[in-house]
Write a structure and sequence with these properties.
By secondary structure, the protein is mainly alpha-helical. It has 7 helices and 2 strands. The longest helix has 26 residues.
Length: 153
């Protein structure tokens, strides 16, 4: 086994930068899946079901697009944890409500599958929750409209 490990290590250093990134991303994704017990079910699918709920389209589209200076120093240093690339001046960024910034396309792709912030697990609203929020917002506006109608009469 030790000989195989050293052979794999030697191969690793000969890989292109893109291949190293791809393998690193694959290893990271595999570890996340293992941590979430999505590969081998334990009979309790509640955790997996709640994790793989997409964010609502409206919530994704309305994410704040920060200017470079608005992204936290920590986010700029860490880079985009979705694609594992650095954040650079001039790139389109989006900030989730918890304050973490990512490449726009990366966080859009992430939230279409997972509604949770990849850093702190802040939950964006699902389609169903967004519908409820929109209904509550509409109900809150109704009394104002009725009062305006009564005043106009």
């Amino acid at each position: 086994m030790a000989a195989r490990a050293s052979a794999e290590d030697a191969d690793w250093w000969q890989l292109s930068r893109e291949e190293v990134r791809r393998r690193t991303r694959d290893a990271w994704a595999a570890s996340v899946l293992e941590d979430l017990d999505l590969r081998v079910g334990d009979g309790d699918d509640d955790d997996a079901a709640s994790y793989c709920v997409p964010a609502s389209g409206k919530a994704i589209w309305e994410l704040h697009a920060p200017a470079w200076g608005e992204a936290s120093e920590e986010d700029r240093r860490r880079g985009c944890v979705v694609c594992l690339e650095g954040l650079e001046v001039g790139q389109n960024l989006r900030m989730v409500p918890c304050g973490h910034s990512f490449h726009e396309l990366c966080i859009f792709k992430w939230l279409v599958v997972h509604r949770l912030c990849p850093i702190c697990q802040f939950a964006m609203p699902s389609e169903e929750e967004q519908r409820l929020l929109d209904d509550m917002e509409e109900e809150a506006r109704q009394p104002v409209r009725k009062k305006k109608k009564m005043l106009m009469q």
